[in-house]
């Protein structure tokens, strides 16, 4: 998936795809190649639209592979909130203020008495700078 000799700044998306030859990642070798290409794109101060599209595609392929090989274990939303609060050194009051969620709601979520709503998941995600889906119950 290396885009080596092509002038990526002048290349169209089709040319980048032809050179990179992205495909579903099924082994460590392909994974390393994709990461190498991602790294070369990430080092650029500014990406063209075509390079941005290629980067998005490669990131998705890498993410899919890594989720299969190294699945993220499920952590209950209350435990995730607690962990992130501890890592950040934030109190319940600071979390409530910073995320714009009432103190009582934060307390109930931490005790497992209240599920995290989608709106509150986005507020928590913004506060902790993480993916909001970490705070949603899984079926």
Task: Give an overview of the whole structure.
By secondary structure, this protein is mostly helical. 60% of the residues lie in helices and 0% in strands. The protein contains 7 helices and no strands. It has helices at residues 13-20, 28-42, 49-69, 77-88, 92-99, 103-110, 118-128. α2 (28-42) packs antiparallel against α3 (49-69). The longest helix has 21 residues, at 49-69. 17% of the residues are buried. The mean pLDDT is 91.
Rounded to an integer, what's the Rg over CA atoms? 20 Å
Largest sheet: none
Number of helices: 7
Low-pLDDT ranges: none
Mean pLDDT equals: 91
Q: Can you give the helix content as a percent range?
A: 55-70%
Which structural class do you get from the secondary structure elements? mainly alpha
Which sequence of SSEs, written as H and E, runs from N to C? Answer: HHHHHHH
Strand content: under 5%
Spatial shape: elongated
Distance from first to last alpha carbon: 36 Å
Number of E strands: 0
